[in-house]
Amino acid sequence: MAKQLIIVGGGGHALSVANAAVQLEYELIGYVAPKPSEQRGHHQIPWLGDDTALDAQNLRNLPLLSGLGSAGLIDKRRSLYLALRDQGRSFPTIIHPHASVSRLGVQLGDGLQVLSRAVINAGASTGENVLINTAAVVEHGCTIASHTHIASSATVCGDCVIGEAVHIGAGATLIQGLEIGFGAVIAAGAVVTRNVEPLTLVAGVPAREIRRIHDQELA
Question: Is-above-0.90 flag for pTM?
Answer without folding.
Answer: yes
